[in-house]
């Protein structure tokens, strides 16, 4: 016979806990600000590489642990991701808005634009990149539809295609940077180059995070395990990155 005390203990509210968020934050801290500081401020390549390596391992461990928990554990509070994701995206919108606002203020305060020292930047490549990114949003949506119909094989196929398209987009960004750097167009060249590398680089970092999130979902899915909440969150994030690119392309390349 169960006593009232035992019943109260069974129904007692317990908060969930995990080491994963700590590993992700600490890994990001070592990988980005610490490694960058030693490389750019202290010009110590060895320590920069060491901290970047430590940060990468911690970040990957944290992401892996978080994904595994999401696939194997029932959350105590249902629907939290549906609330948290819009808040996260809203914060990202404000960050991008601050960058664009700085660019607009600078752009409108200078009579001659682009400034002296700016080479002719190809207008065809960003159009191609737009089609690639829009195509990746379409394939991500198709993958979601496949998962809704319990077609895991179809989901994996379209999810992989999305990763390939995202990687192609990132490759285009890196190729363009390499081409411009060979023309001595670097972040320090002028005001436009600083804005160009900052905004396109910040967007490219979001593409890289998106690709990592896609891979984190794909690996367990290849083994037959997936989570619709994970898939939805990654897809919404990717569509957000897609929409932001329209602003990047129109303001940086065509204005």
Proportion of helical residues = over 70%
The CATH topology label of the largest domain is: Four Helix Bundle (Hemerythrin (Met), subunit A)
List the uncertain runs: 1-13
Order of helices and strands: HHHHHHHH
CATH class of the largest domain: Mainly Alpha
Overall 3D form: globular
CATH superfamily of the largest domain, by name, is Cytochrome c oxidase, subunit III, four-helix bundle
Number of helices: 8
Number of domains: 2
Mean pLDDT: 89
Assess the beta-strand content as a share of residues.
under 5%
CATH architecture of the largest domain: Up-down Bundle
Number of strands: 0
Roughly how many Å is the radius of gyration?
A: 22 Å
> Structural class from helices and strands?
mainly alpha
Termini distance?
A: 76 Å
Largest sheet: none
Describe what is shown at a glance:
With 255 residues, the chain is mainly alpha-helical.
Describe this structure in words.
The chain is mainly α. The protein has 2 domains: 1-78; 80-255, Up-down Bundle (Four Helix Bundle (Hemerythrin (Met), subunit A)), CATH 1.20.120.80. The chain has 8 helices and no strands. The chain is globular. The relative contact order is 0.11. Mean pLDDT is 89; it is low at 1-13.
């Amino acid at each position: 016979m169960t006593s009232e005390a035992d019943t109260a203990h069974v129904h007692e509210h317990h908060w969930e806990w995990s080491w994963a968020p700590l590993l992700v934050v600490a890994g990001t801290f070592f990988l980005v600000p610490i490694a960058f500081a030693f490389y750019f401020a202290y010009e110590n390549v060895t320590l920069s590489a060491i901290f970047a390596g430590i940060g990468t391992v911690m970040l990957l461990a944290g992401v892996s642990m978080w994904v595994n928990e999401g696939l194997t554990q029932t959350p105590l509070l249902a629907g939290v991701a549906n609330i948290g994701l819009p808040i996260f995206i809203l914060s990202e919108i404000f960050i991008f808005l601050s960058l664009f606002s700085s660019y607009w203020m600078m752009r409108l305060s200078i009579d001659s634009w682009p400034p002296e020292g700016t080479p002719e930047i190809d207008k065809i490549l960003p159009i191609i990149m737009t089609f690639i990114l829009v195509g990746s949003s379409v394939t991500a949506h198709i993958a979601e539809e496949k998962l809704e119909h319990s077609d895991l094989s179809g989901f994996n196929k379209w999810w992989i295609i999305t990763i390939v398209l995202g990687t192609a987009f990132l490759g285009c960004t890196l190729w363009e940077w390499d081409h411009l750097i060979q023309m001595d167009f670097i972040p320090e060249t002028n005001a436009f180059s600083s804005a160009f590398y900052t905004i396109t680089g910040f967007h490219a970092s979001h593409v890289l995070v998106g690709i990592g999130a896609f891979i984190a979902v794909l690996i367990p899915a290849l083994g037959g395990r997936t989570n619709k909440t994970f898939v939805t969150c990654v897809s919404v994030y990717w569509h957000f990155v897609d929409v932001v690119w329209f602003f990047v392309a129109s303001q940086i390349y065509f204005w």
